[in-house]
Design brief:
By secondary structure, the protein is α+β, with helices and mostly antiparallel strands. The protein has two domains: 76 residues, no CATH class; 93 residues, no CATH class. The protein is 26% helix and 37% strand. It is built from four helices and eleven strands. The strands form two sheets. It has a six-stranded antiparallel β-sheet, covered by helices on one side. The protein has a five-stranded antiparallel β-sheet with strand order 1-2-3-4-5, covered by helices on one side.
Length: 181
């Protein structure tokens, strides 16, 4: 069985021969290991893909494995999207002549139902398009496929969330990653 094919938790060793728990889902790796924090033994968990990851500490191995598994599944759903972010999209778009890539960031002067300000991005409901807009970015819900985010280059990304609030928060994260230098 290849290491990448493992879907359950297995014990592996690091370079120093220290054992730890590992789980892989595609290119997503989750680990759990015993460590000492402030003089107490705790379980450290880590999950992610490439340079993107989350980590934390739990009091029990079970709690650490649950947290790591949830995080790994979250990253696994979005694996292709994270791989796309490696391309430094802002620079790529500038080379393609797409220079309007920034979302609206100004807090609305007067609050109305068609405005939503979240994580530094102002979304405005466009009645004509029936979608939320922020600069060249578009966000909408499709009954058959769920929430979608359109990038300035007209590519579409599916968001794996249920609510509008979660869609706007996740869209903000992807916008931030796409515009990072």
């Amino acid at each position: 069985m290849s290491t990448n094919a493992r879907t359950g938790w297995g014990i592996v060793s690091d370079f120093d021969g220290q054992p730890y728990w590992e789980r892989r889902i595609g290119d997503v790796v989750a680990t759990v290991r015993l460590t000492t924090l402030n003089g107490a033994n705790v379980w450290h968990y880590h999950a992610g893909i490439g340079r993107w990851h989350v980590h934390g500490y739990k009091d029990s191995i079970r709690a650490a494995k649950v947290a790591a598994t949830k995080a790994a599944q979250w990253y696994a759903l979005r694996e292709a999207d994270f791989e796309r972010m490696e391309a430094k999209l802002r620079a790529k778009w500038l080379q393609q002549g797409i220079d309007k890539v920034e979302p609206d960031r100004q807090y609305p002067p007067s609050w109305r139902a068609e405005h939503w300000y979240d994580t530094g991005i102002l979304w405005t409901w466009d009645y004509e398009l029936s979608m939320w807009t922020s600069g060249p970015w578009r966000l909408w819900y499709d009954r058959s496929t769920g929430w979608k985010l359109r990038y300035p280059d007209d590519s579409i990304q599916f968001l794996h969330v249920e609510s509008r609030y979660d869609a706007m928060r996740e869209a903000s994260m992807w916008i931030g990653l796409a515009l990072a230098e």
